[in-house]
Amino acid sequence: xxxxxxxxxxxxxxxxxxxxxxxxxxxxxxxxxxxxxxxxxxxxxxxxxxxxxxxxxxxxxxxxxxxxxxxxxxxxxxxxxxxxxxxxxxxxxxxxxxxxxxxxxxxxxxxxxxxxxxxxxxxxxxxxxxxxxxxxxxx
Length: 139
Fold this sequence. Notes:
One of its GO terms (cellular component) is small-subunit processome. This is UTP20 protein. The protein is mostly helical and 139 residues long. It contains six helices and no strands. The model has no long low-confidence stretch (mean pLDDT 87).
C-alpha cells in the first residue's frame, strides 16, 4: 500500500496531490511512530522514503503544514481514547476490574518469562491451569 501511495503521488504531480496529502501522510506517520515489538523495519524504511519523496514533490512548506496537521490529529485521537478509557473506568468498574486483573496476570507471566530467559536453569512456578478458580467467573 505504501508503494501504491508513492506511485499515486508521483503520478498526480505537484498541484493535484496537495488536497490528498494529509490522507496519504496518515498511514505513513502511523508506521513511523508505531512502537510495536514485532515491527517490520522494511515498512519503516519504505515509509521514510515515501515521506522524503513527498517532501521533494510538494515542497517543504506545504509538506510541513500537512504533516503537522496529521500529527495533531493523531495526538487528539490518542487523548480522546485515554479520556474514554478513564470514563469507562468510572462508569463500568466491573469491566475496569477485569481489565486490571488481566493486566496484572500478564505482567506476572512476562516477569516469569524474563526470569526463565535470563536464568535458563531456574524454573518459575507456573499457575495450574483448569482449576476451579480459573473457571469461576470474576465478580
